[in-house]
Amino acid sequence: MAEVTLPSGVLAFAERGPEWAAYVERLPRLFREVTEEWGLDVDGDPTHGYVSLVVPVRRDGEPAVLKLSAPDVESRHEGLALQRLAGDGAVRLLSADPHRSAMLLERLHRTDLDSLPVIEACEVVAGLYPRMHVPALPQLLSVTAYLDRWTPQLRALPRDAPIPRRLVEQALSLVGDLFGDAGEAADVAGDPAPVMIHGDLHYQNVLAGDREPWLVIDPKPMAGDRHYEPAPMLWNRWDEAVASGNLRFALRRRFHTLVDVAGLDEELARDWVVVRMVYNMLWELEDHPDHPDQDWLTTCVAICKAVQD
Length: 309
Prior knowledge:
Radius of gyration: 20 Å
Distance between the termini: 60 Å
Order of helices and strands: HHEEEEHEEHHHHEEEEHHHHH
Number of helices: 12
C-alpha cells in the first residue's frame, strides 16, 4: 500500500484554519485510496502547490503525476478545463475524480518560464493564450460572478483606505463598462461570446514538456473576456522589474509584448489590468484589515500607473 510523507509546506496548510487542518489530516488516507484504485506506484518525492499535494507516480510503468487538491471554488473545474483542452497547449489529463479533487496528469519537467528571460517568457505565454481561450464551458462561473461578490465592498471602501481614491473610482467605472448590461465583457475586440480563461497564467504555471516545449498547468478556469489574462505576468517576477532600474519601462515592455504577440486590444487589456489590481488591493484589505501588506499594495498601484501613465 502506497504511503506518502507530507512535505512541511503541506503540513503548514493546517495553519490556515480548521477546514484546512481537516484536509491535511485526511490527505494520507485519500492518497492511499486513490493510488490503490488507480494502480499507482510512487516514483519520486512529493511537492505541493498553494492548495495541493503533488506526487510523481507511475501507472503501468508510465510516468505521471498525482495531484490531490483542497476543494476550493477557483480550482474546482480544473479537471474539466484540462479535459476540454485535451493536451492542446496544456498538461494532459489522464484520469480524474472530481468528487475527491484528484487528478492524474501527464508528467512534465520542473523547469518553468522563470528559466527564460522575461520578455521571451512573455512571448511564450502570449502564444499560448489563443490555445487556452476556447469557447467557455457552461459549468464555469463568469468573471462577473466572482467580482460581483466584492463590488459592494469596493463601493463602500472608506475614502481614507490605503488605495488611491481615483483608482477605486476608475475601477468601479470600468467594471460597469466591461461587463455591460448583460453581465459579460463587452464585445469591443470582436469576441462574440465569453471564452474559457485560465485565470492565473504566469511564469510558474507553464512547465517544460516532452511533446511540446512549454505546457500550461493549474488553470483556475472562468468564463469571460480573454483580456482578463495579462495581469499576473506583471506582478510575478517583480524583483526583476524593480532591479531593471526603470520599473515603468519594464512593466510596459511586458504588457506590450503580451498584447502585441497575442493580438489583444490594448485598451481592453489595460482596463482589465487596472480592475484586477484594484480588486487585489481590496482583497488584501479584506483579508488583513489590521496589517495589510504595504509592499503588495504599492506593487498594485505601481502596475496601475505603469500601464496607464
